[in-house]
Design a protein that fits this description.
Two copies of one chain form a homodimer.
Chain A: E1 6-11, H1 21-60, H2 67-85, E2 96-98, E3 107-112, E4 115-125, H3 137-141, H4 147-163, H5 167-172, H6 174-206, H7 215-224, H8 231-240, H9 244-270, H10 283-310, H11 319-339, H12 344-362, H13 365-396, H14 404-432, H15 439-447, H16 453-460, H17 466-488, H18 490-496, H19 505-513, H20 530-533, H21 536-553, H22 560-563, H23 569-575, H24 578-583, H25 597-615, H26 621-628, H27 631-640, H28 642-653, H29 666-670
């Protein structure tokens, strides 16, 4: 047991007040509490400011800066003020004492004249920062525990992504999405890792490297910057109603590759060859890591799907209870996965997808609205919070290591890694796809590979070593660059790539509100005949899901007695919900693949109208659509969505420019 | 500077692994993270279990145990399991070292062979518990930082209470409510404080007291147990539609006296006579405390009202932004108040009341629903969480001091303190009230003085000294007793006091959903003629509010050009919202005192129907009501609420018993 030198430096603001010790302690606690409130207030104010500016932007239809980019800018500004603007001179006395102690424990018990105090390990402090500790007290205060991101802020974002996946388009492009997300992320990770390793070797030669940087570190960097997060791009797609398939590909890929990147990075961290030299290549350790990747991923997947499926809710009479239960089940999926050693983020993603597919149909209409709105709000707040915090850390983080060579290398590697993901895979996929991914789509996907919340959360999780600190600083720059430049240039890129979109954002916004996304481009009429053209895998799955899973797990779909062979009669009767019988007549072919069934079919119809209006050159869309649903279904949908259609019909008579629409509330202008 | 003996005991689970130190640290962190997830999962599971049981109770119309009582029971059960069921033997090595150090600082910097580690003070540990620290690791893990209650769980509860105050009845009974809340709480605090001081003196005589217990401690105890929280009772009132005035009195009192108790207790803590003997009586210090009470209360009040009023929202086109902004403003009120040294809870309460009164009217209908549902959900989760945590702490809290004599004394004191609040004040108030508070109402108010979340949060906030620990344990018992016994006996007490209610809970539930509360008792017809009979103070305020404040702050109400004298014309035109002009024709006498205006007027009308149906002896209600609103207003309201009325009309033909109503969904029964 090595007994080492042990120095205690006491940071005590009220050092000389020994009388009334309790009161002093209380005052100190109160003071620190006030400080905490003020710090939190900074973030709330940041968010409020962001919201107000977003509103202004939306109102003025300014589209070059998305809310996340904006949140980052405000974060940077506040970071600058905190760093350079505020200097609180503090009266700190340091007592340095030495006593023999062993390695840093997680908990310290200190006995001061009969009273025991407990101390917990907060973290390691950079040796050259120790003298600044008192100066940086304020800065360290606004620095969160990185686990906050993983346990509180990421889950709602990921869940919301899963919950709002446009499932029909997602499942139709499932093969491609899975290829981009799994193969693509792994390719990107290794390409970036290898390039960075080359860069690091070069830096070592030139003498630019001050610490260790192993190959596993490079791979880890590759994994974390492979998680794309095109939230900015998708928001603009949403508003401009860009092609649904492109949207599905980008969204599906980004959602899934977050999950892949998390598991990949933890597998890389777990790569520990045996023996003394812990950074050589070893097949066994690699296989172990690979096995771990598969195990963790499939475990999280299974867990998420299981909770999603088994969130049976029969509390239809009490929307509050129902919503609360729904919320708690999603959160407990995350916690359960973490407690089991799986990845909560992955579990919560698949839980979201499953819940949207099955559980959602069991909810009362009131609860459906409530849950959607709740997760939407949580997602919005968490996302903007992360992005403003990102901006803040650029100046308030204590251990930045900006290395120009590494940064340049990283930018090149990120670019090449994305290219090595998109272009070769698209080529291969196009061999099998009937509906090809055109080259302008490929360029757009390349361009839309922004890095966001997940990359940030992964890189800030561990900033203990020199390598990790350098990675974190570089990652921050990559995120800033992609969000501001790529995010801001989306509209330009769309025009440049000749991808069609509607330029009237108010209409887009209207569609967005009813959760409708995207207008088909003229060439793409495949989605109107989903059932005829799509992959056989999808068709098999769809039939199984529609005929067996849905009736068992939800109150919708045909009763099992109709879909199962007659010999299974009694079993079918037990498993079918009584509501399914009631609904039988109206649910003959209800394509409830989407959260908003009615809304989506409206969209489908609306789209056709839009396309016809816009180009005047649409012929086959009507019948093709009618092939997907029986005609009385269509009638029902039409009467349902009448109001919507009328509204949209009126809107589309307008020329597609940015002129002020007639029904905008005049007082918004007046009372500005 | 006193250098004292300093002992460090190291709790290190992986003590002998010095190789691969980083990996071990990482593994340790992962282990601790998993443990955290599992702990949190316990609470989520508790909540889920509570929700499922509540649903069962509501479904079966079992009314003797409210959800909060249930949450406590589950909490107690889990606490027992954690305490006695789980024993994790751990391999802990203790290193005890001595070095000279001064008083316990908030932050420790420890230098272990060149690496600096930062430690933060977690808290004091009871001297006789030190040896059990390793055993109790698990128990301490499920123990939250008490500030969590004040900063995260209480604000949504308090805000929701303020936001959902039935404002018309509240303002009509404002004088009485203020008297009970302010005078009553102070009386109760001092009565309990004096009685407890007597009890403590007696205990000292008998030799039952092991530590210090000063008069200020007794007063502090008085303050914390004076905060009533009749959430259980009110839920039952809601369901059974008990008299609206009784409801308003109880609800208003309990909401406001929480605020009073918080400020009162912090004033008592701040009572610090100068000189050596810090526990004698001193007029100056008391005046200072009193001044502090007034200052903090009015400061928080002003802050809350100010933010409530100035949350102008003009984001009507974007419900998500609007809801997010609304949420952030409420939270920032809390934080701002805390940062300024005021009381966040009080600020958030008045912010809620003001926002419901003014800002709510500016929201788009979509946002109105969203905010209501959001705060309802947050309130529900926070409340049930606090109550299950309460149950849990009965067994998991480490420093319980159960002193039988103190406990008995406390129960007697709490009873007498409540009596000294209700009966004398009611007598005095009845001298001035036209609509007397009858003696059965007084008994009911006496009985409904439960203690809940606020009392718990205040008592767990500081459990450092012997006196505080004894208070905490006793408070816990008081809360348990009142919630289970008084809460569970509400229905019996109502029957016993002959306070009328509807015994068909499904109807109550229906009314609850549309936010309607209470049926007038036959004798009480005063509320139908609000404007004629109510207090002059109320009338002046009402007119001022309706004619000037509402038009300035909201889009509703008459335009200022109509209410201000002609000379103020230009000013009036600037201040009036353009919408007010548009709405002028329809808002002639819109009594928008309540969140759900239409709902409430329906209720008023529905009540009359109910009363007529039930007793068949109602004559004057129709005309009296018509006096309150113009007849075409009434017409509009009636067409609006037609569906409601029809439903209720059907229901009321049924005999008032617990028979299964015909339209209950049959499959709930079948698929149980």
């Amino acid at each position: 047991m090595a007994i080492r030198n042990f120095i205690i430096r006491v940071l005590d603001y009220n050092y000389y007040h020994h009388a009334m010790e309790n009161i002093v302690t209380e005052k100190k606690a109160e003071e620190s509490h006030r400080q905490d409130s003020a710090d939190l207030l900074i973030f709330i104010m940041l968010l409020t400011l962001t919201i107000l500016t977003i509103w202004l932007f939306k109102h003025r239809r300014f589209r070059f800066l998305h809310e996340t980019g904006l949140a980052m800018i405000y974060g940077v500004l506040v970071g600058v003020v905190l760093r350079y603007g505020i200097h609180v001179p503090r009266d700190i006395s340091n007592a340095t004492l030495s006593c023999p102690v062993n390695a840093s424990p997680a908990t310290l018990l200190i006995n001061v004249s009969g009273k025991f105090y407990e101390y917990t390990l907060k973290g390691e402090i950079n040796a050259n920062e120790v003298d600044d500790v008192q100066d940086n007290e304020m800065l360290r205060k606004v620095t969160f525990d990185p686990e906050v991101f993983f346990n509180i802020l990421l889950p709602p974002i990921i869940f919301h992504a899963g919950y709002s996946l446009k499932r029909r388009h997602f499942f139709r492009n499932m093969g491609s999405i899975l290829a981009y997300a799994f193969l693509g992320t792994v390719i990107s990770c290794f390409v970036i890792g290898l390039l960075m390793y080359g860069c690091v070797m070069l830096m070592k030669q030139v003498g630019q490297l001050d610490g260790d940087f192993f190959f596993t570190d490079c791979l880890f960097f590759g994994a974390i910057v492979s998680a794309t997060d095109p939230v900015t791009v998708l928001a603009i797609f949403n508003e401009l109603q860009v092609d649904v398939d492109l949207y599905a590909l980008l969204f599906g890929e980004s959602v899934l590759n977050d999950a892949v990147a998390v598991v990949l990075s933890s597998s890389i961290v777990a790569y520990q060859p045996q023996g003394d030299n812990s950074h050589t290549f070893e097949v066994m350790a690699m296989l172990k890591s690979f096995g771990m990747f598969l195990g963790v991923f499939s475990g999280s997947f299974a867990l998420g799907v299981a909770t999603g499926v088994f969130t049976f809710t029969k509390l239809r009479d009490f929307p509050l209870l129902e919503t609360a239960l729904f919320f708690l089940m999603s959160w407990s999926t995350f916690l359960l996965a973490e407690a089991c050693g799986f990845t909560g983020v992955v579990a919560v993603l698949f839980c979201g997808i499953t819940q949207a597919h099955y559980t959602f149909n069991n909810l009362s209409p009131d609860s459906q609205d409530r849950t959607k709105q709740l997760f939407e709000l949580l997602n919005f707040l968490a996302e903007n919070f992360i992005f403003s915090y990102m901006g803040l850390t650029l100046f308030t983080f204590q251990n930045h290591v900006f290395n120009p060579m590494f940064i340049v290398g990283a930018f090149v590697a990120v670019f090449l890694g994305r290219a090595a993901n998109i272009y070769p895979l698209s080529f291969l996929l196009n061999l099998g796809r009937r509906n090809k991914i055109r080259s302008n789509f490929q360029h757009m996907m390349m361009f839309a590979g922004l890095r966001g919340a997940m990359t940030f959360a992964l890189s800030i999780r561990d900033t203990a070593t020199y390598a990790r600190q350098m990675m974190f600083s570089t990652t921050l720059l990559v995120v800033f660059f992609t969000v501001w430049i790529c995010g801001g240039g989306t509209t330009q890129m769309l025009s440049c790539q000749r991808i069609r979109y509607l330029s009237n954002p108010l209409l887009g916004n209207m569609l967005h509100r009813t959760a409708l996304v995207g207008v088909d481009s003229d060439q793409d009429n495949s989605r109107r005949s989903t059932k005829h053209e799509s992959a056989w895998l999808f068709r098999i799955w769809y039939n199984f899901d529609h005929n067996y899973l849905k009736p068992i797990l939800t109150h919708s779909g045909p009763p099992l007695t109709a879909t199962l062979p007659p010999c299974c009669g009694p079993l079918a009767r037990i498993l079918t919900s009584p509501q399914a019988y009631e609904n039988e007549c109206q649910l003959k072919d209800d394509d409830s693949d989407l959260i908003l069934t009615d809304g989506d079919i409206n969209l489908t119809y609306g789209d056709i109208t839009v396309s016809t209006d816009a180009s005047g050159a649409h012929t086959s869309s009507g019948p093709a659509f009618a092939g997907g649903a029986t005609s009385d279904d269509l009638d029902r949908e039409l009467t349902y969505g009448d109001h919507e259609l009328v509204m949209r019909g009126t809107r589309l008579v307008l020329p597609m420019d940015d002129s002020e629409p007639p029904f905008t509330d005049p007082h918004h202008r007046l009372r500005m």
